[in-house]
Amino acid sequence: MIIPAILGAAIIAGVLWEAFETVVLPRRVARRFRITRLVYRSMWFPWRAIAHAHTNPKSRETFLSYFGPLSILLLFAIWAASIIFGFGLLYYSASPHDFTHPSFPTCLYLSGTTMFTLGLGDVVPHTWFERTLAVAESGLGFAFLALVLSYLPVIYQAFSRREVNIVLLDARAGSPPTAAELLRRHAGLGGAVALEQLLHDWERSSADILESHVSYPSVSYFRSQHANESWLAALTTILDASTLLLAAIENAPSARQARLTFAMCRHTVVDLAQVFGAAPPADVPDRLPAADFKRLFAALKQAGFQLREDDASREKFAKLRAMYEPYLEALSRFLYLQVPPWILASEIVDNWRTSAWGRISGLASSDHPELDDHTD
């Protein structure tokens, strides 16, 4: 039976190549059809639709947070089941064609016990070809286990590095982070030096996000610890702040670093939109309507920044926004991540100021103004 043998070999080869591209190969795969991409899309769209039905934002975010870890485990299960099925076809085609020929479920059972090296002995291979297949599959089972054990630490290390940088923005740009709050908190004595260092750090952080999320796209589905924080919100804040420094703030001391950081963050956003096939939508909402624009500039003036409000600056401001905002909107819709505004409608307490006890006792408000060094 040549057809089951060809089909089984093709399934095994396809799964092994998918595992190599997903786990071992440290770069983006441009091939259109991939089993991994098909699995993720077939799971993510229904999962996102169910999450959309949640009316409570916290329960919705909690539900979405389960997808990243579960999707990896399910992907491993699909790979393992496919390999077992492929070897089952090979056993079925290699068995003697007489009255002792086993049924296909029996061949699947032999494949499963061999894959997981159970060695029960109730079903054993008879021919040399079957024995060769059994040795190959048992070795592949050990390799598959090693692949799983090596892949998970890489994923969680990338997630941990990303989250550290996001949490550091909490005291620097608010919760959720916004460009207005980031610049306001870096006004005054020593603020320019700290802002330039922050932009320098985020140039490297965005490069790390690009490298890790392109090589391992599953990390993108991992949600942050707080519902009002995300890697997309952080990138948005840094892009917005860099845009203001480049187009609206007079004699910005961090203009050169802002240009470099803007280029790297924009590169990250555009490439990740391409990885997920998230094309920029035609109906991109205006994140900075006229009323918010006036509030933003008023807040920056109050913080001590000198602003450029001529036509050339406004045109440059609009062009820079058009370079990244459509891609932010595309990623926001695809990953169900909220993009923060340029400036919040009202003051919100930072995450570091709150706790379960604080919310209960009424101590979650800003009761410690001596810590607000951005009021210089």
Describe what this molecule looks like in 3D.
- Helices cover 66% and strands 0% of the residues.
- By secondary structure, the chain is mainly α.
- It has 2 domains: 2-150, Helix Hairpins, CATH 1.10.287; 169-375, no CATH class.
- The relative contact order is 0.09.
Task: Write a short abstract of this structure.
This protein has 376 residues and is an all-alpha fold.
Which terms would index this structure?
376 residues; mainly alpha; Helix Hairpins; 2 domains; 14 helices; elongated
**Structural class of the secondary structure composition?**
mainly alpha
Order of helices and strands: HHHHHHHHHHHHHH
Using only CA atoms, what is the Rg? 27 Å
**Major sheet: size, sense and barrel closure?**
none
Multimerization status: single chain
Please tally the helical runs, counting DSSP H or I stretches of 4 or more residues: 14
Number of domains: 2
Shape: elongated
* Helix content class: 55-70%
Q: Residue-averaged pLDDT, rounded?
A: 86
Q: Ends: how far apart?
A: 82 Å
Beta fraction of the residues? under 5%
According to DSSP, the number of beta strands is: 0
Name the poorly predicted regions.
360-370
